[in-house]
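Worked example 2:
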Amino acid sequence: MEFTTHLPHPLIAPFIESVFHFKHFQPDHSIERVVPTGHVFIIFELDGKPRNTFENDSLVPNATYTQVWISGMHRNYISISAHPDSEMFVIQFKPDGAYPFFHFPIAELNEKIVSAEEVLGEDILTLRDEMLVVDTAQAKFALAEQWLMSRFDQEKLPPNDLQDLVRKIHEDATCSCQEIVHDYPKTQKHLIDLFKRYVGLTPKYYHRIVRFNEMLQLIQKNQQIRWAQIAYQCGYADQSHFIREFKHFSGFNPQEYIQQGFNEDEPNFFPLDREGVKKLGVKKEE
């Protein structure tokens, strides 16, 4: 697989988590579970292959996406298709970085995957068409950056105190959300309204997602996993609380997660129809 990333222009870089392009992706599965990461994405398919989402339990297809789509903030895991010889281009916004480009409260995208054209207009399809014409990843990055710069509104930057809180949630993910926001100078309602506008989710729920992803990273670094110790390190009240959160965000309990070897893969993507996963009762609809 060819995988290339791009560092955006300094003016917009503080609001972009990642811009990347890949081609010739050859997965060993056709359906994968994606856990929430606390980001908004614009996703371009550049191979002409429609993508599907699936019902999480039955894995029956429930929607199809083509050309360009937006994935908003998700509170739970979703199931998506994976295709051989894939080529895609992805813009991943920082947790509080999408609003200056979208110009409406990010909470409106919560729990949604929508056609980008509906939200951003036909210009986004024109951008995809231009990407298809150029040959190199660098040329595609240049086109995307030009489009991002044209959308960027400096009047809609997240307030400094909000940026500070988001950063603090990441730095202190194992602390309770109440501790993290304790010194916020304004009302809780004001803070929640800010989060819904710029981040999408409430501070408490966003903190839960960040802590869960922190825990996944920690598991990947451990050869010998002691769940009680992991629960303590990540700030869960007890092991049962930890297991509930694990099941909520991944759909698996911790032991199932390890049995399937998911800790050896990318931390946010779990293949569902790879050899061995069916032992858990996950079945692909024929």
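The first helix runs from residue 99 to 102. The chain has two domains: 2-156, 160-280.
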